[in-house]
């Protein structure tokens, strides 16, 4: 299964494609620290289709795959109660993409 993270045979990260990424803001970083979420701060291209030497990278925060629960349900199940499915795409009977909104409760 393709993911935003590519790993080698030893499980080491060797590449990324469109990971969960936000522009850097100290308040975002503090919130991640408060909630014990693994992340990295670096300079990134925010649009995977718009990259290259002539496109500047911007400072951002990327969420680490260390937070993933598993590949088919990457977040921990206790988060499910906060999510509502609003769209999905199925292919040959398998759900390939899902868009959730965060419940306001």
Overview of the structural elements:
The protein has 105 residues and is mostly beta strands. The protein folds into 2 domains: 1-67, no CATH class; 75-105, no CATH class. The chain has one helix at residues 26-34; strands at 5-7, 13-16, 21-23, 39-44, 58-63, 83-91, 94-102. The strands form 3 sheets. A 3-stranded antiparallel β-sheet has the order 3-5-4, covered by helices on one side. A two-stranded antiparallel ribbon has the order 1-2. β6 (83-91) and β7 form a beta hairpin. The N and C termini lie far apart (33 Å).
Question: What labels describe this entry?
Answer:
single chain; 105 residues; mainly beta; 2 domains
Q: What overall form do the CA principal axes indicate?
A: globular
Number of helices: 1
**Major sheet, described briefly?**
3 strands, antiparallel
Radius of gyration: 16 Å
Got a strand count? 7
Helix content: under 10%
Q: H/E series, N to C?
A: EEEHEEEE
Oligomer: single chain
Low-confidence stretches: none
* Spatial separation of the terminal alpha carbons: 33 Å
Strand arrangement, major sheet: 3-5-4
Integer tally of domains: 2
Tell me what portion of residues adopts beta-strand conformation. 35-45%
Mean pLDDT: 85
Supply the helix-strand structural class.
mainly beta
């Amino acid at each position: 299964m393709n993911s935003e993270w590519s790993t080698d045979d030893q499980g080491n990260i060797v590449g990324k494609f469109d990971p969960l990424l936000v522009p850097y803001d100290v308040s975002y970083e503090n919130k991640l620290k408060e909630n014990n979420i693994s992340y990295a701060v670096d300079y990134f291209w925010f649009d995977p289709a718009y990259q290259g030497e002539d496109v500047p990278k911007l400072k951002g925060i990327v969420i680490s795959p260390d937070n993933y629960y598993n590949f088919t349900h990457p977040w921990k199940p206790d988060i499910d109660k906060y999510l509502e499915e609003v769209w999905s795409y199925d292919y040959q009977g398998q759900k390939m993409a899902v868009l959730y909104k965060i419940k306001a409760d």
